[in-house]
Write a structure and sequence with these properties.
- 43% of the residues lie in helices and 17% in strands.
- The protein is of the alpha+beta class and 264 residues long.
- It folds into 2 domains: 124 residues, no CATH class; 132 residues, no CATH class.
- It has a 5-stranded antiparallel sheet with strand order 6-5-4-3-7. It has a 4-stranded antiparallel sheet with strand order 8-9-10-11, sandwiched between helices. Strands 1-2 form a two-stranded antiparallel ribbon.
Length: 264
């Protein structure tokens, strides 16, 4: 893809944003008190990707996306990714070959252009490689206080964090496929490491969670008195990291808690 093609594709995606934004702004008018598009990089990325897939299957592909079509014909894929930009914030983007496509470039700073396309090596984008890295970014980007997940210790090897933002919203983290995969690939050693360094969740936060969700009978939400690192060690010994059915059971249990609590 030469420079002219890059600019044409960037302009094309920016026009797709003009079609998408009014729809998404109605669906997601705000995020943590901030107006659309702030904080909505995943929703925007997914909507743009859907539009692209539709256009790429048309009999006559728009000229601006012909370079993408050629790459797909050559065996490349449009890959949705999540990670960090320069360890400053989290970002959802699209990769193809050695190109980084940020279709939601204005979701941290709304004054930036809607779309940015650069070489991946120049983008500053990378995967998250540890929970410590995740925590450092989350504390700056989300303005959260972090605790160990001693609320529901059986979930902690997969979801080791309790996050509390300045508005009092509290949720378990990090509930996305990338971070759960990171925990599993490390045989829960990365989870155990961060659990051993984070402070315990304050009692008033625990009370809020147990008051709201105490009626749930899922066995994975019981045994709240056990140290969460014990579950990391137990799951590792039982090779739960490679058990997809168990992973699904953890996610199912988490989804019952996904709304979190408010401690404001």
């Amino acid at each position: 893809m030469n420079e002219q093609q890059r600019q044409q594709l960037e302009n094309h995606l920016a026009h797709l944003r003009l079609e998408i934004d009014p729809i998404l702004a109605k669906q997601y008018p705000s995020f943590a008190g901030k107006p659309y598009p702030l904080g909505r990089c995943k929703e925007i990325r997914n909507a743009v990707l859907d539009k692209l897939h539709t256009q790429l299957t048309q009999e006559k592909v728009p000229e601006a996306i012909e370079p993408l079509s050629a790459k797909l014909s050559g065996g490349q894929v449009l890959k949705p990714v999540w990670g960090t930009l320069r360890d400053e914030y989290f970002q959802n983007a699209i990769l193809i070959d050695d190109w980084y496509i940020d279709a939601a470039n204005d979701t941290v700073n709304p004054n930036k252009p809607r779309v940015e396309i650069v070489k991946l090596a120049e983008s500053g984008f990378s995967a998250i490689s540890s929970f410590e890295q995740f925590c450092t970014i989350a504390q700056k980007y989300w303005q959260v206080t972090l605790y160990q997940n001693d609320l529901f210790p059986a979930l902690a090897p997969f979801l080791p964090l309790v996050c509390v933002n300045q508005q009092g919203a509290c949720w378990l983290g990090a509930a996305n496929d990338d971070m759960i995969s990171l925990a599993r690939k490390s045989e829960f050693r990365l989870s155990e490491r961060i659990l051993s360094t984070l402070p315990n969740t304050p009692q008033h936060i625990k009370t809020a969670w147990y008051t709201q969700y105490g009626y749930l009978s899922d066995h994975l939400l019981q045994r709240t008195e056990v140290d969460p690192t014990t579950f990391c060690q137990s799951y590792r010994a039982q090779q739960k990291d490679s058990d997809l059915l168990f992973r699904d059971a953890i996610v199912k249990a988490y989804l019952q808690l996904a709304k979190g609590v408010s401690i404001a």
